[in-house]
Amino acid sequence: MxxxxxxxxxxxxxxxxxxxxxxxxxxxxxxxxxxxxxxxLAAVFLSLMVGAKPLSFSVVWEALFSSANSYDxxxxxxxxxxxxxxxxAVGPAFGLAGAVIQALTRNPLADPGxxxxxxxxxxxxxxxxxxxxxxxxxxxxxxxxxxAFVATIAIYFIGGGAGKKSPSPEQIVLAGVAMAxxxxxxxxxxxxxxxxAFAGMLNWRIGSIARKGLEDLWPxxxxxxxxxxxxxxxxxxxxxxxxxxDRASSLGVNVNRMRILGLIAVTLLAGGATAIxxxxxxxxxxVPHCVxxxxxxxxxxxxxxxxVVAPLILLLSDxxxxxxxxxxxxxxxxxxxxxxxxxxxxxxxxxxxxSL
Length: 356
What we know:
By secondary structure, this protein is an all-alpha fold. It is built from 15 helices and no strands. The chain has helices at residues 2-49, 57-64, 71-105, 117-130, 137-161, 169-193, 195-198, 202-206, 214-217, 221-241, 245-250, 255-277, 283-295, 299-323, 332-348. The longest helix is centred in the first third of the chain and has 48 residues, at 2-49. Mean pLDDT is 82; it is low at 1-8 and 10-20. It is a multi-pass membrane protein.
């Protein structure tokens, strides 16, 4: 009896030793997520306070919960609240789209632009403005969504998705790069031919969340929500795909179905966000990369963190853009490029952060 109990005791010790680092990592992730949420809340209030006319916290708080007809009230409710809410909507979309495409392609340096989603949306908008003379955002938003859908489907089939076997990550990447280059060239040509029509879209092409109202967001919001749900639903399966298609199939994952769902999620998220805010760079590339360094290669946690950290970085970048050349503003797409490039270079040199 004594001999039979000894192995059981040793086994329990082994299990306990294995559980300790898992429990510690889970606790670290949860604490980090709570901190990120608090930082996001602080960034929201900063977004409401900072601008051409700085407002105190007490003024913002009073304006949020009162209906006083004042200049400060007008600034907050007609400009800063819509701007902040749009950032809270498109930030997670860009970040999560980047996380999905990095998991699908098993490439930690991939982003939504690699599928040509941004290029497809921009090309469709250029077509709407240059050919059909549509300059209202509520009208060309739909062109952007259609362009994103068509570009993603085309890339999937060009990459080999028309056959029985799903296209490899390398094929999707090459097809996306080629498609993006071609569409960006055509878009630039259209903007040069009719420069007057494109003058009002300059901020959109750079990437901006300024001078947009909530009425511009509502038509896009359902697409973003559906994309969010699809992405979170396939997150556990993407953990298996990270080991390769053959290993994922042996674990019971339908790789082709997951890849199609992933492409749909990326199209809805990045296409919808690009439609309203323009092709904001580095959010989809930088955020999942930073998050992976902290939480490890577990896709559900990467996705969850990306939903919180992406709008945090977008809001902070937008705040910097408001004050760096005050009273003029720098579009947030330029700031994310300046902030994202050095951070990404630092992370690329870290072996832990550069691997999936």
